[in-house]
Write a structure and sequence with these properties.
The chain is α+β, with helices and mostly antiparallel strands. It is built from 33 helices and 28 strands.
Length: 952
Amino acid sequence: MSANSLPEGAAVWHSLEVDKALDLLDSNADSGLTPQEIQQRLQKYGPNELEETAGRSTWEILLDQFKNIMLLMLIGVALISGLIDLWGWRTGTLKPGEVPFKDTIAILAIVILNGILGYVQESRAEKALAALKKMTSPLVRVIRDARQVEIAAKELVPGDVMLLEAGMQIAADGRLIEQSNLQVRESALTGEAEAVNKQSSLKLPEETSLGDRLNVVFQGTEVVQGRGKVLVTNTGMTTELGKIAAMLQAVESEPTPLQRRMTQLGNVLVTGSLILVAIVVIGGVIKDGGFKNIQELLEVSLSMAVAVVPEGLPAVITVTLALGTQRMVRQNALIRKLPAVETLGSVTTICSDKTGTLTQNKMVVQSISTNNKTFRVTGEGYAPTGDFQLNGQKISLEESPEISALSVACAVCNDSVLQKEQGEWAILGDPTEGALITLAGKAGIEKDQWNSKLPRVAEFPFSSERKRMSVIAQVQQVATGETSSRGIDPAIAGFLQSQPYLMFTKGSPELTLARSTQIHLGNDTGTLTEEQRQKILAENDLMASKGLRVLGFAYKPLTEIPPEGSDETSEQDLVWLGLVGMLDAPRPEVRTAVQECRDAGIRPIMITGDHQLTARAIATDLGIAQEGDRVLTGQELQRMTDQELEENVDLVSIYARVSPEHKLRIVQALQRRGRFVAMTGDGVNDAPALKQADIGIAMGITGTDVSKEASDMVLLDDNFATIVTATKEGRVVYTNIRRFIKYILGSNIGEVLTIAAAPLIGLGGVPLTPLQILWMNLVTDGLPALALAVEPPEPDVMQRPPFSPRESIFARGLGSYMIRIGIIFAIITIALMWWAYQHTHAAGYQGDRDTWKTMVFTTLCIAQMGHAIAIRSNNRLTIEMNPFSNIFVLAAVVVTTILQLMLVYVPPLRDFFGTHYLNMQELGVCIGFSALMFVWIEAEKIFLRIMGKSAV
C-alpha cells in the first residue's frame, strides 16, 4: 500500500483488530516504517502539529473601534468645528480671548479615549490554541527501520510504532498493539478523573464513546503507569486534540447583549440627531429667507450633534463592569472578558459539568452491605467523621461487628494516605481508595495503626483483566487485655484460627463473589449459600442503579505467603465480607443554588462524561431532574440530526457519556431555540463549547489552561453555587446600566431640544457651546451615573425570570421614559431660557448680555442633580429611602454641583468654558427651575402608585 492510498483518518480504529489496523496503515509492529515511507507520509500528512488560522491584527482591532456610528459623527463634528474655527481665525472674526480649535481638540480627545477603551477590552488575544499546543509532547520514542529511536513529536506520521511508558505525554492518537498494566489519565480530554485501564486485545463497536475506547490512546493524555506499544493512526489536526483545535477556531464570537444594545442605541441617537439637525437648518433657512445666518445654524447643529452623543457613557459602562468584576472576584468568580459581567444577567440556561462543580470531586461512601444488611453512611468529603444508619436509625459498631471487619479490609487493602492539611482533610492517592480510608476512619479503624497490626508482606496488584487487587498481611500480636483473643485485635479475631497471614481482596463485586465460598457473619464464618449469593448480586445491582460505584471485599486466612504470580490459584475459596457503594457526593450548597436558579427562571442542565446511572442519581438528588426523566447518552445524541436534537433539547436535563462535539452541538441547539447559555467545563474537550456558549465558565482549580483561555469567566472555587451568585450580580449590573442610561439620555434629549429651540423661538446665538456640552456629558452626567452604577440590588432580583437578551435597550418603558423626561427637561429649561434672555436684554441690565446662556448651562447641570437623587428608585419616593444606602450618589451630587459653580465663579475656568458671572438672584432662579425636575419625577411616582402601575 502506498502513502497515497492510506486511509484519510476515517477508519474507526477502535473497532478494528490490531492486525487489520497494521494492514490498513501498511506498517509492521516489530520494525515500524522505513525512511522512504516516513518521507512519503510526511509529505502527505504534514507535520504532527496543530495549525492556527489567522485572526484580526492589532491594527484591525484598533480601527474597528472608530467604525462606531456615534464616534464617526463626533469625528465629523470635530472636523466641521475645526473648519469654522479655521475660517474665523483666518478672517479675524473670532471673539476677543477666544481660543481656536478648543472644541475640536476636546471632541477628538473624547473620540480617541473611547477608541482606546474599546481596544483595551477587545484586544486580549485568544490563547486557547497556544494552551492546546502545550499539551503536545516535544519528544517521543518510536520503532523505525527495526530500531528504537527518539524523534521530535512533530515528525510522527500515521503508521509509526510509538512506545509508551509511565510519565509520558502521548504525542499522537493511536491503536494499542500491546500493553502491560497500562493506565492513561484522559481527564483533560474526556472529563473523567480516574485513569483508564487500556486493553489492546479488545475490538469495540463503532459507536463506542470516546471515554470507553479502551484499545486506543489519544494525543495530549498522560501515561500514569505501565507500558505499551502503539500504532500511530492520526496526527496533527486529525487527532481528537486537533479536532478540538479546529472546533475552537471555527467558533465565531457573537456580540454580547450589551454590545448589541449599544449599537442599537447609537443608531437611534445618530439618526434622530441628523433628522433634528436637518429640521433646524431647513427651518432656520426658511425663517431667515436665505443662508445669511448659516454659520450660526451650523454652530447650533454642531452643538446638537455633540449633545445627542453620550460621550461619557462608554467610560461609565466600562467602570460599572469593572466594579462588577471586583464584586464577583470577592465571590470567587473571576471575569476574563468585561462584557461578560452584564451578559450573566441574561442567562436562561446553565449547562454544568458534574464532577467538581455539582459534586465535591471527592468519592464518598454512601452505603455498605454486609451480613445481609445495608447500612447508610453519613458524612461529608474526606473527613473521617460520620454515622452508620440502619433503617434511618444510628447503630453502634458493637451491634454490627461486621462493619469493623469490612472497615479493616478497606484500610489494609489500600495504597492511599489520609491527612489533614490547613484544617482540611485531603487524600494522597486514588480518590476511590481515599473514600475507603475515610469509611474505615468513621468506624474507628485508622490505617496507620493497622499498618503495624497487619503489615503488608506481599500483594497481587490490580489489573484491568482481573479487575481486583489483593494484599497479604502478617498478623501481629497486640495487647488487647482479653486472654481469649490470643493477642489479636478483636476486629479481626473471627477472621482466622491460627494462621499467621491474612489476604484481603477487593474489586469487581461479581468477580470477587464468584471466587468466594464462605461468608463472614458477625464474628464467625459460614458457607455462602446460593440464596445469599443472589441477594448480594441483587444488592449490587440496586446500588449500581443509584449511580454508586460498587466494590466487593473478601478475605482469606493463609498459612504462608503465596508465591509471586500465583494470584489465579491464591484468590480462590475467599470469605465474603460485603459491598461498599460510593459516589462523588453533591456539594451541599448546590441544592439551594439549583432551587434559586429555578426561582429565577434559569434552567440547570447536567452534561457529563460519566455513566448515565451516576448522572441521573446526582441530578435527581440536586433537583436538576425529576425521577424518571430521560437521560440522553452520547451514543444516542450521535445518531440524532441537528433538527432532532433541537426538538429534544428542551426536554432533556441530563446528558451522559458525551464527547467534545456533543457538548458543542448541545450548546448550539439550545441557542437555536433562543436560549441564552452559560456552559461550565474544565477539560480540553470543553473549550469549543465554552467559546460557543454565551458565557463560557472554566474551573479555576481543576481547569486546564485551554479551557480557561476559551472562557469568559473562571470559577475560583469550582462551585456551581458561585455561578448563581455571579448571575445575580449580572442582573444587578444590567439594572444599574439601564438606570444610568435613563439618567444620561433623558438629559441629553433635553439638551438637544433646548439647543434646537433657541434659533426657532428667535433667541440670538447658541445657548451651549460644544465644550460646555462635553462638560455636561462627561462630568455632570458622568459622576452621578457612576454613583448610580453601585446602587444595591432590589430584593426580588432573583425572584423573576431573566429579561430577554434580545430585548431592545428601549424595552420595558425605558424609551418612553427618556423621551418624556427629555421633553420635561426641555420645557423647564426653555421656560428658564426665555425668562433669562428677556432678563439679560432688559434695559438697564448691568451684566453681559450673553449671561442668559450661562443660566441655561447652570440650570441643565443642577437639574440633573435632582434627577440623579430621584431616579435611584423606580417606585419608592426619595423620602422613603435611606439616603446613606448609596452614599456615592450624595457625594457625586455635592461634588458635581461645586464643580459646576467653579465654572461660573473661578475666573480662569470661566474664561476657558465661556461662561459668565451670575449674581445671587440669577443663581437662585437657576436652582428654582432646576428643582422642578426633581418635583416632577417624584410626582410621577405618586401618580403611578395611585394608578396602580409600576414604573420602568
